Amino acid sequence: MLDLGSVADRLAKNTFELDDASHIELDQALARSTGTGALLVRACPAHVYSEAPDGSILVQHAACLECGTCLAVAAAGSLRWHYPGGGLGVVYREG
């Protein structure tokens, strides 16, 4: 069987061209009232979202894999997300 290496090793080959401006905006009040914040923290495979001591959700856009998981779990209107501008963001090197 062909050994493709571990997922972690394969993901480490990806590169990120960072955009100074975040491509993710979260409505904190709506995220809190709908439970979206907790869902984002649990669901994001890149750990982009974390909960601050005051209950607000912190967003580290630079870690985003652009997979769309957050869009699938977020309540309508709580998350504004778009791909980073002009060639920026994650550059996948392998499967």
Task: Output the keywords.
globular; 95 residues; Alpha-Beta Plaits; two-stranded antiparallel sheet; two-stranded antiparallel ribbon
Any chance you could write out the topology, listing elements then pairs?
Blueprint lengths: L6 H5 L3 E3 L6 E3 L1 H7 L1 H8 L5 E3 L5 E3 L9 H5 L5 E3 L7 E3 L4
Antiparallel strand pairs: 1-6, 2-5, 3-4
Task: Give a quick rundown of the structure.
This protein is an alpha+beta fold and 95 residues long. It has helices at 7-11, 28-34, 36-43, 69-73, and strands spanning 15-17, 24-26, 49-51, 57-59, 79-81, 89-91. It is globular and about 50 Å long.
Describe this structure as you would to a colleague.
The chain is an alpha+beta fold and 95 residues long. It has a domain at 25-84: Alpha-Beta Plaits. 26% of the residues lie in helices and 19% in strands. The chain is built from four helices and six strands. It has helices spanning 7-11, 28-34, 36-43, 69-73; strands spanning 15-17, 24-26, 49-51, 57-59, 79-81, 89-91. Strand 3 (49-51) and strand 4 form a beta hairpin. The protein starts with 6 loop residues before the first helix and ends with a strand. 17% of the residues are buried.
Distance between the termini: 17 Å
Note the run of SSEs as H and E. HEEHHEEHEE
- Classify the fold: give the CATH topology of the domain at 25-84: Alpha-Beta Plaits
Overall structural class, as computed from helix and strand content, comes to: alpha+beta
**What CATH architecture label of the domain at 25-84 applies?**
2-Layer Sandwich
Instruction: Summarize the biggest pleated sheet.
Output: 2 strands, antiparallel
Gyration radius from CA atoms, angstroms: 15 Å
List how many beta strands DSSP finds.
Answer: 6
What share of the residues lie within helices? 25-40%
Mean pLDDT: 87
Total helices: the number is: 4
State the strand order across the main sheet: 1-6
The CATH C-level name of the domain at 25-84 is Alpha Beta
What's the shape?
globular
Give the assembly state of these chains.
single chain
